[in-house]
Amino acid sequence: TRPEPDDLSRLLDKICADADVDAPLSAPEGVEVTVRERPGARFLFLLNHNHHAVTVPLEKMTAVDPVTKETLSGIVTLKPWDARMLELQAYRSPTLIETHSVEHSV
Length: 106
Prior knowledge:
Blueprint: H1 5-18, E1 31-38, E2 41-48, E3 54-64, E4 71-78, E5 83-90, E6 99-101
Antiparallel strand pairs: 1-2, 1-6, 2-5, 3-4, 3-5
């Protein structure tokens, strides 16, 4: 038996809260957020699975786009089906969920 998406979301939220685990940031519905690390560097991957543009709040993060060298803080705008990889420069570090994705059927 599979739970309904809303029920599964509530269950996962409770499990994470009980374990004192936070997502890297609060993303809009349909945006996948992943943080990957290697020695000396932390990267943020943002994937927009929506048919429309979205803004993603970077909260207290500062990041650099390794391709354009643009420094970003505040918000990042993603076009429909867009993806960004950003190198994090400043980051408040709670216990992290390695991958936080929210996908809904369209």
